[in-house]
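Notes from hallway chat w/ T.B., transcribed later so I don't forget. T.B. wanted the structure written out for a chain they're using in a teaching module, and asked if we could keep both sequence and structure tokens in one place. Agreed to drop them here.
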Amino acid sequence: MPDIIILQTLRDVGSLSWNKCFLGEVENYEYLSAIEEAGIKGFSWSYVTAWEHGVLVAAMPGFITDYALDTTLQGTCKKITSSISSAFPNLFKLKMACLGSPCTEAGIAGFRPQLKMTDKRMVLRAMALEFERFARAQGCSLISVKDIPEPLQALWEPAIQALKCASLPGPPTAYLDIDFASIEDYMARLSSATRKDMRRKLKAAEAVEIRTAHSLDDVLPQLMALYHDTRNRSGWQFEELTADYFRGVLANMQGNSFCTLYYVQGQLLAANLLVRDATTLIDKFFCMNYEAGRKYNLYFLSWFTNIRFCLEHGVMRYQSGQAHYENKLRLGSKLTRNQMYFKHRNVFAQGVLRLAAPVLSADETVK
């Protein structure tokens, strides 16, 4: 059995060793390093690693934070819990240790390619149990595993059984296969009503200037204002990204990251941070001046801009994140279901959380 070691910084692993376990993953060492260095308030980072004869054979990021149980609630339920929280700030908060990252698209464990499936399952089980011991030592009452994609749930089965976790649906991941040759071919696959609507919306693009940026130094204050405006409109808020996050992603992932900026009459109205490799483009965050941006249909313009980028660079998959599923499905996206797992140290509290799980689900498509 490999030695399981929990580290506090990726620098103790190194880029080469980490990325050998995450071949084919866009959100690699460089991306996770940007998260670690971003100064995101309320989070401490950890990295569960498995070593054999001094060689890293498996790894996964983790974090500790004070988690508000009503994070995924929306509408009336959210208003009620927010009112209660204003009087009792810690009532719905638990100190949580989570396997995964709040800033990645899904919970992915990495393995050396030579590991067989049986070995992966065994090592992952050992890593999960060591992380649980670590969480208890840190005083965490809740342990969780974030957003495991449906195709990987068999891999996780021994670990989840060992932890004795309950489950609930997480937000699915939306993606579009770029298996068409042109925008015209793509449009032909959409419904006639959607095609007509998109052509009408894209007429506003004539007034929009689109720029590609690999550094944000000259626009960072405006971008952060757009980010906070967009975040404050969201019914689901977890981590709060920092200027150093946006700056760090572009600096750490040179050649594999960029930000698309949308201007009208010299005013920045929207920004879209994206990361990529040779086959996949991931939309990390789209932020927009809501009133002015809607006038120019900038969300839809950004969608077609990103598809055009994929076509021009031979990218085969456009991954558009975990929200606004109605528009994404309408535009031809498919969904990969994700599952979240959780366990409270107190047996009674765990029973209550199991009962509340359907209400707390972050899967908008289920709701």
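Follow-up for T.B.: The longest strand covers residues 55-68. Might be a good example for the class.
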